[in-house]
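Structure ticket #2291
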Amino acid sequence: MEHLTRIPKDRIAVLIGKRGATRKMIEEACGADLEIDSKTGDVSAIWNIGEADLIKRMKIPDVINAIGRGLAPKRAIQLIEDEMFLQMYDIRKWVGRQPNQTRRMRSRLIGTNGRIRTLIEELTGTEMAIYGSTIIVIGDQEGLDLAKPAIEGILKGSEHGTVLYGLEQDRKRQRIRSRSLESFEDKGYEEDSKFDTLVPSLADARRKRERRFKSAQVDPENEQEVAELMEFAEDEGAVFEEE
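Resolution: structure written out below.
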């Protein structure tokens, strides 16, 4: 049996689910039997030999932690996928252990009617959950990279407008970089194709030159390679004259 993690006691029922539905879903996804201690919140796994994938085995604690920190089970199970990752923030790192400050920061991150959290999720393609003093974010690496400065900016006290404007600019820059890379790759391929099609003789000459250059690189210690290099081609010769 392998200990995976510990979750808050008030989230144990969510992890188990109605008639054990959530636990069963996780067990089928990761190839293990879960043991959940209802008194402590400790979660352990008994791995089924031959069924447990190494990557899933590494990522299942993130799934359980996400559920334990407020994320809905059907959303948390996405973390099983290779491209999905979990990022966790502790609000106390920015405001200390004062409950009033923690509640105030939670409200700032959520916004009126959840507007701020929704905007961050939409602009980054991530999903967030705020529970107690923790914030969890799940998404692909690009989405997490976008969300990080926005979340940390709010935690540091920046205005919502400033943070959202910066997030939009970061998103635009990310898209431009992505498009530029795709354009560069496609352009390089098209130029090669057009060059070979329109001027095949020059392309052949280029390839011959490259082969000749490569063949000229011989090992000076290898007598056979040196002798082959010194041989004249059919149209070559040497003339000795006195000055």
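Closing remark: The first helix runs from residue 12 to 16.
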